[in-house]
Amino acid sequence: MAKRSDVDVLMERIGAEFEALPRQLQGVARYLEEHRTSIMVQRVNEIAEGCGVHASAVVRFAQRFGYSGFTEMQAVFRDAYTEQAAPARSYQQRIRSVIKGRPDKLPAVEIASRFIEASKAGLDELSAELDETRFQAAVDMLSAAENIYVVGVRRSFAIATYIAYALQHTTKHVHLVSGLGGMYREQLRSIGKGDAMIAISFPPYGKETLYAMRVAQQHKANVLAITESDLGPLGRHASVVLKVKEGSAFAFRGLTSTICLCQALFVALAYKLELTVEETLSRGEYDD
C-alpha cells in the first residue's frame, strides 16, 4: 500500500480541526494548503505576510499541531516535497533519482507492480472515504444544470477530457474548457446561472483552473471541485467538493482513482437522467 506522507497526515489533522481554530490560525491553514509545495523555501515572516498575521501566529499554529516551532513544521514539508517542489523538475530527472536510489537494476515488472499496488491503494482509500451526501449532491447539481463546463490542466487535462467525452453521451450541453489559443475567457463567456462547472485540480493548483472557477462564480454558476482537500483554493470556494487522493510510486502520482471517480459520476448522472426520462414518459402515457 502506498505510504502517505507526513504532510498528508498533517493536512488531514488541520482539516479535521479547522472549524475549531481561531480566525488567524484558519488563515495560516488556508495558506499552507494553497502553498504547500513552496512552504519549504519561505521564511516565517513571508508566510505571516501572506496570511495577513503576525509571525507569532504562524509559530502558534505550528505548536498547536505538536511542533516546537515553525522550523520543525517546515521540515515536514521539505521532506515530503523535495522530490516534486520545483515546477521545472523534469520526468527525466525523476527517473534518474529512482535509478540513483536503487544500486541494482530495477526489473520492469517490479515498476509495473509498484504502480499497480499504488493505484489499488488509492482506489481502496477512495472507496472507504467517498462521501455519499456529497456524491449525491454532485449528481443532483449536474442533473439540474443546463450546460456543463469542464476544466482541468496539465496532468488533470486527461481527466477533464475523459469526463467531457463521457458527458457528451447525455442530453446535457457539454463544454471542454481547453484554453486552445489562450481563449479561456472566450470559452467561458457564455457560462451563467443554471450552469455547472466541473473543476479538476490538485496541488500545486493550475492557475487556469482557478481562473475558470472564479469566472463561473462571478456568473452565478455552480462549481463541482474534484480535488484532494476542502482547504485548498478549489475546495474552499466550490458548491460541492469530491475529494480524491491518488497513490504514488517513484515520485509519480497516479490517475486511477480520479478516473474511477469521474466514471462513477458519469454513470450515476446518466442513470438519474434516464430515470427522469422514464418517469416523464410514464406520466405522459397515463395522461393520455
Task: Name the descriptors.
288 residues; alpha/beta; Arc Repressor Mutant, subunit A; five-stranded parallel sheet; two-stranded antiparallel ribbon; 12 helices; RpiR family transcriptional regulator; WH-like_DNA-bd_sf; DNA-binding transcription factor activity; carbohydrate derivative binding; DNA-binding
Task: Please give the structural blueprint.
Layout: H1 6-17, H2 23-34, H3 44-51, H4 55-64, H5 70-81, H6 91-101, H7 108-129, H8 132-144, E1 147-151, H9 157-167, E2 173-176, H10 184-187, E3 196-200, H11 207-218, E4 222-227, E5 240-243, E6 248-249, E7 252-253, H12 256-287
Structural account:
Strand 6 and strand 7 form a beta hairpin. 33% of the residues are buried. Helix 8 packs across helix 12. This protein is α/β, with parallel strands linked by helices and 288 residues long. The protein has 2 domains: 76 residues, Arc Repressor Mutant, subunit A (Orthogonal Bundle), CATH 1.10.10; 155 residues, 3-Layer(aba) Sandwich (Rossmann fold), CATH 3.40.50. The chain has a 5-stranded parallel sheet, sandwiched between helices. InterPro entries: Homeodomain-like_sf (IPR009057), HTH_RpiR (IPR000281), RpiR-like (IPR047640), RpiR-like_SIS (IPR035472), SIS_dom (IPR001347), SIS_dom_sf (IPR046348), WH-like_DNA-bd_sf (IPR036388).
- Uncertain runs are 83-89
Largest sheet: 5 strands, parallel
User: Total number of helical segments?
Assistant: 12
Order of helices and strands: HHHHHHHHEHEHEHEEEEH
Query: How would you state the average pLDDT, rounded?
Result: 80
State the helicity in percent bands.
Answer: 55-70%
What is the architecture of the largest domain at the second tier of CATH? 3-Layer(aba) Sandwich
**CATH homologous group name of the largest domain:** Glucose-6-phosphate isomerase like protein, domain 1
The backbone outline, from C-alpha atoms, is: globular
What fraction strand? 5-15%
CATH first level of the largest domain: which class? Alpha Beta
What is the terminal-to-terminal distance? 59 Å
Structural class: alpha/beta
CATH fold naming of the largest domain: Rossmann fold
Strand order of the largest sheet: 2-1-3-4-5
Question: What's the number of domains?
Answer: 2
Our Rg estimate from Cα atoms comes to 21 Å
- Tell me how many strands there are: 7
